[in-house]
Design brief:
This protein is mainly beta. The chain is about 10% helix and about 45% strand. The strands form 10 sheets. The protein has a 22-stranded antiparallel β-barrel. A 5-stranded mixed beta sheet has the order 3-8-9-6-7. Strand 48 (about 935-945) and strand 49 form a beta hairpin. The longest helix is centred in the N-terminal third of the chain and has 11 residues, at about 30-40.
Length: about 1000
Amino acid sequence: MRLRGTRLAVSASLLSVGFALAAPALAQDAAQNVAQDEAADAPAAADKEIIVTGSLIQRPNNTAVSPIVSISDAAIRQAGKTSLVDSLNQLPGFTVGGNEATGGQGTGARASINLHGLGTNRNLVLLDGRRLPVSDIRGNVDINILPDAIIGGVDAITGGASAVYGSDAMSGVVNFKSIRSLEGVTVDLQNTLSSRGDAFKFKGSIAGGTSFAQDRGHIVAAFAYAKQNPLNGSRRSFFFDKTPSGFIGTGTYVPSAANAPSAAAVTALFNSYGVAGARNPLGSNLGFNKDGTLFTQTGALNYKGPNGTGGYAVVGGNVRMPVGQQIDYINGLERKSAFVKADYDITPSLNLYGQFMYVDLTTSTESGGSLTQFPRLTTIPVTNPFIPADLRTILASRPNPNANFNWSSRYVGVPYKGWNESYKVQQYLGGLKGDITDSWSFDGFVAYDKSDHDSVMHDAVLKSQVQNLLSAPDGGASICAGGFNPFGDANARSLSAACQAYITKNAVSKERLSQTQAQLQINGKLFDLGAGPAQVAVVGNWRRNTYEYAPDVDVTPASGFAPGANVEGFAAQLPVSRKAISVKELAGQIDIPLISGKPFIEEFGVGAAARVSDYSVTGSVVSYEADMRWRPTETVLFRGSYQRAVRAPNIAELFSPPQNAQLALGTPPASLGDPCDVRSLARTGANGAQVAALCVAQGVPQAQISSYQFQTTATGSTTAGSLAVTPEKADTFNLGFVFNAPRGGGVFGDFSLSVDYYNISIKNVISAVPGGTVLSGCYNLNGSNPTYSLSDANCALITRDVNGQLLNVNTPFKNLGALKTDGIEVQVHWGVPTPFLADSGKIYVDSAIGYLNNYKVQLLPGAAFLDYTGISNGSVFDAGSVPPRATPKWKALTTLGYRSDVLSFGLRWKYQNALDDVSRINSPNNVALGVPSYQTWDLFGSVKVNERFELRGGVNNLTDRGLPFVASNQTLTDTAQYDVIGRSFYVGIRATF
């Protein structure tokens, strides 16, 4: 038997029960029809071996013991998405991880998968059952690297699969299936444009294949190109007043409690402006009007600048710059990819195969003007010639009038800070497979891949150069034309091209990852108890992953601005010398059919699997599973499984040195913000006086506490790996049934239903301590510090500067506690023939429905579980965080449509129920407004012009559903979770030759 010609890569759910929600609720049942046709032609298929996603066993009629959702390549095209991850995230079992809207601030713009909200590094992403190149230090796979042209479908196992595939697969597996073979050439092109004329997207591909040597060899090659334009917040009115940052282009003088100006001087100055009343010199920063007079940023007293124009707004009585107008909420992307695979039958039972993949991917984003944010900060000497006369009066009233003074600003005189993230990914794979005997076969391969990632921060403002200009006796005019006058918006914007070039640079950081793997799998038949042969699969593999990171020196403390970096508004990073983890694994799986062809037992079988993984750093771990299936009749299947999954810590969790990032806080009272902020719910609540006292103990000046405000919507956070972390353990249960109506005519001749219950419990969870949890815990917003003690463990993770401003929140990796989640997933298909429209015509309804019963998090061993079920967690900055961005109780994707051999069209409905704000967990006595239910409608269609040409098109977000309000997010929405583009149109063409 020729192994190559007898293996079919199809979904287990399709083959075992003849049911698939092909492109769930996108209503493509071609694969389903194929499965049913094969079931009807059982004698012809009886000698075929079937490779089933989620199993190492190859045999006819293999039954899925874990829920599997299958998505066809046609359905992916019909979704009208440029990114594969956006097509998948519509499904109930998927939670938004990384996508085109999560790549700001140089975080890579990676597209990552998150099953059941358990984190992007707790699932495994495969191509044809083999591991893909990893894209970051945490072992995540960026599925942006997959060229659409080679994708023949996707199988998603939404249950644990560690024993079968490896310790990463705690929450499931997503297996992308490449096209098996191709004769001729296929060209596919698609354009997408929003109804507002922006957010343009294009993707195109050409794929070809042929056989040679009398059909003993086959080759498939595909080349693809994709491009999408970024979408800036200035293009959407929603962001006109969002993220009102206190860092403003006019610049402000920040008084120091250690050298404060006199209250009399400040009061007298503002009285001269006609502003009556005594002034607190520490109560507000002082900004600069165009005429040289001063204004208070807090209270906007004597403010003469724009309000609602020019990027400025008075929000809550305070002068702010809403930076939502400056940020790219959709990343720009350009991807060029090549994929080639070939195989050759050396003998009728021995097949040599190989595969090559190359991807050149660049993503881009802008994050607005740089800030004077992280220490050490630049200062201004009193000798600076640009200091306004009124400010000189105030400075002269200080106890030390000659001391340099602190300032705060947003650099409006240089272009927005932006990133280009360039990835060059290569993978080489070669293998040999064949028959050992009539009932035993083998498949072995070796593979190597590497990913080179260059991160270029454009227009990075350098503190050292700015300080040179500020300190120069002539204000820097002798260094670059005009020097640098930071006092007032118009002055700051007049920065000459020479000075712009002097204070900025393109900061380049380099990251490299590699993966080497070797695997041998042997399959065979053992014995037959009368219901079919028992089969076994044994796999041995070795894998080594390496990582190294070389940041630009100006983004490290070595630049001379420790503990911060030389780059303004960017938290410091540290290099990572070459680190490596290797693992040796041995796994086995057995499948035993016990009974078949009996009354009420058409089929009954059991199976089991086990895997031993020996990691070079953390030692050996063991995963195992047991499963059963019972088909009382041909139409009904009951299935269940238990998995013990173990995940070893990755390179980041073990070795990463202290790495800084942004921690989004939002603006109080709508968001958590800084709990010491006088506007925060912590300060305005019943225990506000105790919170204020704790804030003073931490460093907020006593004279300022009654008016203290945090200047912006984010602060720094520091995360570091630890060799003390130990592996996670998970118990996963799946129990479900499938009903597939007997195939035939009539109203219910094409009806399928599957219902599956999942229960996942993870202990010893490895995670960075959530920054919001640290703040809530320290200030007793969640009841964990009832005495408001400065020595509380959470308070020890918080750092403030000399003026009390929140500087940094430490979020180290630890074994924190546990996760528990359970729910039900339902898939329904119902088709009714319409011969009165066309012989092949059918009206159908497809629906995928997810119900989340519980999602609970235990932050520390022995602590109470926090119920995150039905929560909007908009403060999440890391795409893989636990808990995730949202945990809706109900999520559904439903399609009503029509299809025939020539024409198809339909209406797709996506639904998510209303959510409570995360403040229900973090500050239960002061709960912010939640997120209303969110639903969108898509219209799609396609027509086959002839045998060679097919046209498709559609409208996504047909009703132009706007962004919902998300209180806990600094932008007051969540563009990763919800549709920032609005109504958009796409058209595509597919041609075969």
